């Protein structure tokens, strides 16, 4: 391999980017049989897969994790076959949505061969993920591969070893087949960088795939991966999952291993980021989390809280109580989101098996002020310096978030004060939640309280490029460190969503968001997946998943 | 009550202190029958109780929590009788060791009466702590009472309500009978302030009771309380417990409620402090922790990790494996500590029921550098300003810790770096612990690893006043956020500990510590309790307690 072109070696940022793209393209070119260029693809790219891939490849890549696992474990499907199919579909996803930083054909096929041989020899799989191809957001580093977190200035840095989480997935039998794009700074709800340009939405390429795990969103949305690894500090797993119509979970932070990942603001503890899954199925997300927790990652990474995967049935002899948050009272969601929420609520109410109540938001505007301030306690200096080090231009959404009006350059005392403000908000929100209880048990436990909050995953469906600005529906739960599960419900329909609705804007963010809908309408967001979010209290990840399983059974969601 | 004398009202610091002492003395004077002054007490004050209190009062106050609880619950003892006895013994403790900021006779007796009436009327106790008197370190505020955390400048501040933890204990049936002293800044391993002067050790009043929960240490050591509430960020529960020969536990931080306490550096997250119990029995500590966790405090205080009290038997079908840390290789412990440790190890080895191995310290000097730096990220400005605001003099140990050579005035980026250094150390220590495993289980779990570390609780027994300088044996486990349980083993004996031992000092701290032993010898520390510490991995509090129960059964500790 030729020496890497880097800023340190004297190259311009453009040369560094060109070299990275050339390198990526070479990894695509190694895919066999090769994937052709697609000259004038339709805006909705999903059906193109059927024109390019074999029937077997379509079948494999459209299988969910829970279908592939037993087939691979029994040897009904070889890992090599599965990995080849996903490699080809991932290469096609790259050509259509620009979601890949590199494919890993030689590593992946060598690993797949090893797994097939292991199964042959031992008659049993390596672990619960035997043969499952997994895609990984780039800043979760892999041994000896470039690790730049979206900054031109960091190109040339390589990970000394696979990140802790990848070691565990590897030991469980996973195959890493693709690395995916992320935005400059990792702090957009879109995926746009000077290294690779813009990642688009496979359902409508005029829209963003979301971000910052937007490479994962587009790739899993296109089914070039059935399980991907993303990261989330303000919506970065849930935005791409929601935008691309897949399942995505931001677990409570401090549960899943993050040791070894690369990003700015290391040592920052005010808002703790987390890793989590994106998958074509809920079972994929569940298996991912359970596999990681079963390995007791806290023994190697003592920052993690030693909560094992909770097996208990949270709703045994108890009716699920769902609080519905229609609108955070800061930015009103676009009509398709409200329609999807209404569909869910109507179905839940019709069976009577689930109790549905209204969830009143508690100062979500204040929550945004607090978190937008705490993201960059150094005033954003580290990120700014990293951008400026290479002379690369600022992407519009880097400008938007790093220079948001709530950012300040903290001293230690002012940061302590801001942290206390966060804690006071968390206490107030806990009280708000506790106030939904209908009685108090013998040990002071709250009975009859809301179990989970059903809410939007954003103020609209996948936004037009560079318009994803209101983080509140996602970052709200990062500030509180509540787990959030995103799931597909429906898609934008020109007829159903074509009506006119008027709304008097409450503030600048609300105005800007509503004007987008007025400008583009249902036609502009055609075919975009509509997703919603289910949120639980801190460390109640398993309860959120169980609640969703009940909701899925009751409603039959998704409706497409 | 007269208006409080405060700095804000124009008083000098001396006038403020004099007023607080006058107020305290008035609360003592309200105790009936009154406690006389003791003109020339012996250095070891313990036996004086028998001269002053009635036989019944001696019997009650020398009963452990687990003995009192069922008697109170059944009505065999009235709460009023119990509270009166402890109030009188606490008043005597004040006269002998200067450990009280105020007694609470009217509140406590009113509460006791309520509890007795409740039991009469309902035929059942209010909760698991029905009628148990509990003493509380002053900075854990009580409604409408002064709340100053040891700073003259904060006198006049009152708590708007009882702290969260006190609310829970109250609901469980507790009676608060005494508030106890703490040092200026809360950051000494002794208890010396300009408000109340020096708190001394009931076993030898030339020695410190330890700190910063030194009022609790002296009071519980003198049996003026069977259960007290302390706080610990570097040894502040364990130092006084160890010095005064009682049980004390620093639970893993983020388990027990702290909401509402007062102290400097609020919002600091680099080294998380915790609340915990001091008690005349292990059962007292256990009941305290279990009662708090059973109330699910995380629902009101979302910073806490929702770990319920773990009921599982950690050593079912498994031999306890103890790692013995003789010496942290920074400051060598005085001979009595090593003798006590040797007694324990000999007994453990003799039965063969417990596996005993050596625990090699991993860079405990580095651990001290990291934590001593992280305590005061603002360079100690907040504490310094608080002292200087009233013109009160700096106590020697405030000077020692706030101006220690590792303190720096951090910027946000330098604090992030220091935090990452902490995390790297934690990972390295976890690896060090993992390396004691003898095999790896099917899910990667470590088998045969050390379960708990048995180690000193300090570099000697209770130090002479103003000489408690080496925090390493305690702060080590705060940096790692490991739980630590301190328990009494023996006492300094002029004959057994009278031998001469030479030691070549490794560094200044070691030199200073060893010279103290050379200067004072066993005679100087006569009758001082010798205590040891049992430490577990993060959040393994219940495992540490179970391990201690096994060790206690095997060795019969304490040996006095």
UniProtKB/TrEMBL annotation, chains A, B:
One of the Pfam families matching this protein, by short name: Amidase
Domain Amidase: 82-544
Family matches, as Gene3D superfamilies: Amidase signature (AS) domain
Record-listed E.C. numbers: 3.5.1.4
Keywords recorded for this protein, A-Z: Hydrolase
Residues annotated as transmembrane: none
InterPro entries recorded: Amidase_CS, Amidase_dom, AS_sf
Annotated residues for binding of substrate: 186, 212, 233-236
Catalytic residues (positions): 137 (charge relay system), 212 (charge relay system), 236 (acyl-ester intermediate)
Listed GO MF terms: amidase activity
Chain segments annotated as coiled-coil in the UniProt record: none
The keyword Hydrolase belongs to this UniProt entry's keyword annotation: yes
Catalysed reactions, as listed in the record: a monocarboxylic acid amide + H2O = a monocarboxylate + NH4(+)
Family: Belongs to the amidase family.
Protein name: amidase
